[in-house]
Amino acid sequence: MGKRLGLFLLVSLGLALAQPRGGELRVAILAEPPVLDPTASTSQEIPRMLYDNVLQGLVKFNEKGESVPALAERWQGSPSSLTWTFYLRRGVRFHNGAPFTAEDVIFKFNRARDPKSGHTHPEYYQDIQSVEAKDPYTVVFRLRQPNQDFLFNLARPDSVIGPKGRVEEQKTQPIGTGPFRFVAWERGVGVRLERFEGYYEPGLPYLDRVFFRFLPDPNAQLAALRAGDIQVIGLGVSPENALVLRRDPNFKVVTGFTTTEITVGMNNSRPPFNDLRVRRAIQHAVDKKALVEGVMLGFGTPIGSHRSPGERCYEDLSGYYPYDPARARALLQEAGYGPNNPLRFTFTLAAPYPYERRLGEAIAAQLAQMGVQARLEVVEWATWLSRVFRGADYQMTIIGHSEPHDIGIYANPNYYFRYDSPRFRELYTRYLRTPDPQQACEIMKEMQRLLAQDAVNLWVMNAPYIAAMRKEVMGWWQNQPTPSLNVTRVYLSR
Amino acid sequence: MRSFLLRRVLLALATLWLASSLVFVFLLLLPGDPVQAILGLEASPAARQALERALGLDKPPWERYADWLTRTLRLDLGESIRYGKPVGELLGERISLTLALVLLGLGGALFLALPLALLALRFPMWDLALSGLMALLQSVPTFFLGVVLLYALAVHLPLFPASGFPGFSSPWEALRHLFLPALTLALSRAAILFRMARGSLLEVMGQDYIRTARAKGVPETWVLLKHALKPASLPLITVLGLEGGFLLTGAVVVEAVFALPGMGSLALTALEARDYPLLQGLVLVMAALIVLFNLLVDLLYGLLDPRVAYA
Lengths: 494, 311
Hints:
The structure holds 2 protein chains of 2 kinds. By secondary structure, chain A is α+β, with helices and mostly antiparallel strands. Chain A is 29% helix and 23% strand.
């Protein structure tokens, strides 16, 4: 054992030495967030720059999307899953020099579960009855009822922990325990990070400085990458640009999975989609493989329910409704639609999302071959939010659901799909309250099958993660199981 | 002169009031709300209500309008919904860049248009080529011109930075970053100034005093520069003032292409987030700038043409 450990240490030391330290990395992201604290705003751009780079929680997601130790070294759940004991990592300091202790954890979660505190998503923490410290490095959470997603919620960007008592300042001057410390937020330009010398994992991070630049325009991003202003386009490279950059020996393209399900939402409470036969006909009428090949130039994975292949307990239902125009026609006829009375509806597309818009147009074209007349309507994002999302004032729409592990939205009958299924709600509650992960997984799979069976929506594909960078950039995460662009182990080969 | 100025200032204030009131109405008509944009998809109704109250969006429109008007009269533009900071502060951060861009663009356009117009007049052979080129420039969309320049002068010939702005602390670097965006604006606006200058020069050249000058044996180039340029530049000044306004709006596009943190990109963000106070502040400031441009033109007119009297 001792020998093996020695060997392991030697190998890791060798790896660490082989990875040249230092340098500055400039990364383009699409938008500027309103604040820099993920517990104050749900803007995805905040964790994109800061999660695990600057701010950390007790638990974090690794590259595979698993929940792994961060500020908690280890944890233990009681057999009933009602008591969770977390053993904190010792000797951790915040970027302002203050030691990290149980006090910070208690402050954080008392604030998080208080709906009046302004913390994002208090509902993630509502099953927490109390948070107590046994000693400065042991924290005990007591839950009201078992919650299968408890650990997952603790790994979310919303669960990052700042110094005790610091709330308002975190919005613009975030202080955390991560490998990088926040240096400056140049409004409209970008966010600067710098290596935190006191980081608890020795040898990390490799880079000296990271600069996240706000570049909203994809053409500007591409030009900046080619001109050397930036070294990485962190996400959202279009398939065409990816193919072009892939052929250029100076650049490389990284592709992987995301947790985004590109979903054709159907209003289950309104004609024509309150008819199961119509919803099923739509499933058979759309050729997902052709969409991946034709519209996305081969990027993306077809799915058949509201879960991504990279998430745990995934059930592959992409073949549940095979592409079958004859079957689709028959179903439509059964529902009373035919050549003399074609199926007509409005298909609402959200303007700022290029993948979704293109896919929507292609899907409308595929449906047109079936004699279905989908009238395309493009609306602005704010309009989409208030009309489609909040008011459910639509017939069909298409959007990427990027939240990880968000199948619970189907348990809410007021969600914009207006899917009202007591059976699904019962399954979801059972899933949450089942302490055994294996059993919970079985229920999760049944939930996915039920959604497919009810043909609630048309799940087109798992959106691909496409990033482009100069070839010297090493250690970039291949997959995107969190919104974060994690640069802890990124380095520049010289 | 004084009564003229007073009248102009009152007119300017009325214009500003009208412009921002119109924006207020249009924003009410625009679908979409800022609360959802801030809270994201999964917000609870309680959180929505709390935020609406905090932002004062639960009040009826006329009450919000009255609030806004009284605050604006006290020069308080309110607080941005998205950024949670005073609108004035946000504008202050951005305005210098946009102004620099517009002035450079305007100066550049004039710098390009005037000599070329003189050249076209002096050498009729060049006239067709130059007029054709300018017509082409005028028909090319600004964003396209921007991207072409970006690829030519930043990517293929890396002479200038492709995007971004380092701030004014080092003026040389700031100028380097502003060069391409300003050139884009200048080229797109030079076309119209060129045609204007050429037209009015042609008109002046037909005047009697030009004939007199020529008859006296003044060389043709000197006739152009000494006798024709000044009177011909009067209509140019008018157009220049109008162009200032156009450039301000054109800057929105150029700022997007070159990722410059100016008022244009701020306006785009504000619109997307339905940030009412910020948008209104932006419109107010932009309208004020346009009014200011026009006022300057009127005053310049008097300096250049003694026939204009301020009454």
